[in-house]
Amino acid sequence: MKKRMLISVTLVIILSSCIVKPTPEKQKPETEYSVSLKRDVLIMMLAYPEFVKGVELIESEPYLIMKSGLKILYDDALVKTPDQKLENADIQDMLSQIYPMSDVTGIMEKDVDPGRYRSYAFFSDVYGDTKELTYANTVKVTYGTQSLRFTKINQADLTFKAAADRVFGLAKSDVSLLDYISPSSGTYNYRVISGTQILSMHSYGIALDMHYNAQDYWQWADPIKAKERIINYPKSIVHAYEENMFIWGGKWNHFDTVHYEYRPEIILKALYFSSQINITKPWSTGVDASNPTIKALIEQIDLSLKNLKP
Ligand SMILES: [Zn+2]
Fold first, then answer.
1. Is-contact 182 211, C-beta < 8 A?
2. In what order do the strands lie in the sheet with 71-73?
3. How far is the CA of 79 from the centre of ligand 1 (A)?
4. Ligand 1 centroid vs 207 CA: distance in angstroms?
């Protein structure tokens, strides 16, 4: 009896090892570059679902594919100075610095300017590439007693309204906030960044300047007073905007303390992928990969990049 049981157990083991299982296509081992690339593509797809279609390899180079048909090179492989990145950032440059979600305790370190590098190819495709087009995409949003133009693209006007309403609500019980927020110094304005030939994000209708203060801009502020202002700045205002996908210019070494900018990709990258890359873990570690939408995007990105050269 014992012998027969042993034989049947052995048979089961042999048989089960003979069942041919379909071998899934093996993913190539990840590198820091591949992890970073895949994360950035996922972030762009999550942040701009109506605009970013995916990623594609063209002559072995990864391109971000826009729903408009535009293909934007992910990494131009140029070694750039910070000023050159400001003028001509690719998608990789744009997402290279992690925006701190924690409160800052002074002026950021030299050239730490998360969110200040922008891909103009990308922004022009999403928000419009002329003054007429960017203006046509704006709507009026109530801001306290003001009515300000903000883009409706990607429903940015709604998140702007939510952040503004939250802060004006807070100001009802803390009137000291009003000094910081009202009146606004402007939102939509087709213009260049002061002292440069580069388009300001106000040109796309995705930026808000709060109440003007002489210590708010790195170029002309007194460094000691500017630092004090950043330290003492009411963080409840910053949090309300960050929760609504805005970054704050007070978290730049080239600070612009009055400036808030709608940048869902910068906030999502900070929320999901702020930890150091570990290539022994799945590249998507940080997002909820069990969410069906995210899972499908992860599979799509892996498939599109299966021939990525190491
Ligand atoms: Zn501004």
1. yes
2. 52-58, 61-66, 71-73
3. 28
4. 6
> Average pLDDT of the chain?
92
CA atoms of 285 and 97, how far apart (whole Å): 18
Which single residue is written with the structure tokens 């940048």?
263
Beta strand 146-151 with 138-143 is: antiparallel
User: How many Å is the maximal CA-CA distance in the chain?
Assistant: 93
Q: Ligand 1 centre from 259 Cα, in Å?
A: 4
| DSSP 8-state secondary structure symbol assigned to residue 75 | -
Rounded to the nearest angstrom, the distance between the alpha carbon of 193 and the centre of ligand 1 is 9
d(Cα 68, Cα 141) in Å, to the nearest integer? 27
Measured in Å, residue 200 CA sits from the centre of ligand 1 at: 8
Residue type, 48: Y
Q: What is the pTM of this model?
A: 0.90
Q: What percent of the chain has pLDDT over 90?
A: 84
In whole angstroms, give the CA distance from residue 253 to residue 178.
25
- Beta-ladder partners of 55: 64
Q: What angle do CA 107, 110, 114 make, to 5 degrees?
A: 75
Residue 16 CA to residue 33 CA, distance in Å, equals 40
